[in-house]
Structure formats: C-alpha cells, structure tokens
Inverse folding.
C-alpha cells in the first residue's frame, strides 16, 4: 500500500515509539486503558460475522475478542509495522492465525477489499487509537464507511476526566502528552456529525467518572411495514 509523506511520517513515528515499548506494552497498559474489556464483552458479532480492529497494536484485543466470540472472523490493521510484528507473533502463539488476519494500513484511508478481500464489516472497533491519530476525525469517518448493513462501530478512549479531581486530569494529560496522546474533547460532537452525514445512529457513554469515553455509530434497524 502506497503512503503519502504524512502517512509515511506517522508510520515511522509510531514505529519509533513502539519499537521498544511493544515488548512490554500489554503488561503496562492493562492498568490504565480502561473500557477495552467492556467493549469486547459487548461486541456480540453475528454468527459467521466479520470484525475489524482499526489500530490493532499488539493484537491483544483481537485475541481476546476471538476467544470471547469464536464464531466470527477477525481482521486488524495498524500503521506501525513494529507493532504488527509483535501482533503476528502473539496471534500465532495463541493458535488463532487461521481466524485473525493482520495487515498494515492507515486508519484514515485503507482499502479493506485489497487488504482482506472483505469490504464491509459487521463490527469495527477502535480502542485507545483516536487519541494517537492526528486526523482522528478522518479515522472515525473511514471506519464508519466500512460498516456492513446492521453493523456497528465501537470506540473507547481517554475521556476528559470530568468527574475526577482537576489535579488528576492535569497530571494524566501531561503524562499522556509525553507519548503524543491527546484525549479528544470533541468526540461526542464528532460522533453526532458523522452519524448525521452517513445516516448512522450515534451513542456516547462516559465511563469511570469520565476517565474513559465510549461511543458507537450503528446502522439503523429498518422498520419496513408488514
């Protein structure tokens, strides 16, 4: 897949950040990337359905989802080849290489048909990726555009800590900024905008006193007359 200068620079930047961190990423992140397991528990793909994770990182979420919902097929993209190297090894070690397919791709513009032979997905999710993607709104639009009829896009990421002490928020945001992570204050509004533009139903839910934010975009259920 060809990359423009912006995409290539971002891919290189992510590789530089995670070339070392990928080896202990899952061990450390489990303590503060809250809401990921909730998303997986509620994924509920249809029997034989397709599930795509955009920004799959080390493959941790895809492996957990494949174990929780064994009758679906799973796909993942990430812009970082370093992360994908770790993800491929973890998927292989988990014995799930036949059910999880990984590919390098840009969250804001990817050809799912060319990468996977699948153009639309029953479930798509983005877990703690929007806060790291410069064009995060473009990543949401791209994901929403890949939904199959009856499909749903789920996101979870850092919230605005709205019901937590101000000192905690300042310390957390300063620490996240060291890793180029920026919680997206406009997420609820952008979900509404994309939903309206693409004819999708949007939903927004603060979690853990605003530590994390969860959102959904889903295709509406048809109510044709009998």
């Amino acid at each position: 897949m060809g990359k423009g200068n912006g995409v290539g620079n971002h891919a290189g930047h992510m590789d530089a950040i995670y070339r070392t961190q990928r080896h202990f990423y899952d061990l450390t992140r489990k303590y503060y990337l809250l809401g990921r397991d909730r998303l997986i528990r509620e994924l509920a793909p249809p029997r034989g359905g397709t599930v795509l994770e955009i920004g799959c990182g080390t493959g941790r979420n895809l492996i957990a989802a494949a174990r929780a919902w064994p009758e679906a097929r799973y796909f993942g993209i990430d812009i970082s080849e370093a992360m994908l190297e770790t993800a491929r090894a973890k998927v292989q070690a988990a014995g799930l290489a036949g059910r999880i397919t990984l590919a390098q791709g840009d969250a804001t513009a990817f050809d799912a048909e060319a990468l996977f032979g699948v153009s639309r997905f029953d479930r798509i999710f983005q877990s703690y990726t929007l806060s790291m993607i410069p064009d995060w709104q473009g990543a949401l639009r791209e994901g929403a555009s890949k939904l199959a009829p009856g499909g749903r896009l789920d996101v979870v990421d850092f919230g605005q800590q709205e019901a937590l002490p101000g000192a905690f928020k300042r310390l957390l945001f300063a620490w996240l900024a060291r890793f180029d992570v920026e919680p997206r204050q406009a997420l609820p509004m952008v979900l509404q905008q994309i939903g309206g533009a693409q004819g999708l139903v949007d939903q927004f839910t603060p979690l853990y006193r605003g530590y994390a934010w969860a959102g959904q975009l889903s295709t509406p259920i048809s109510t044709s007359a009998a």
Summary: The beta strands are 50-54, 73-78, 100-104, 121-127, 147-158, 201-207, 212-218. The chain has nine helices and seven strands. The longest helix spans residues 5-21. The longest strand covers residues 147-158.
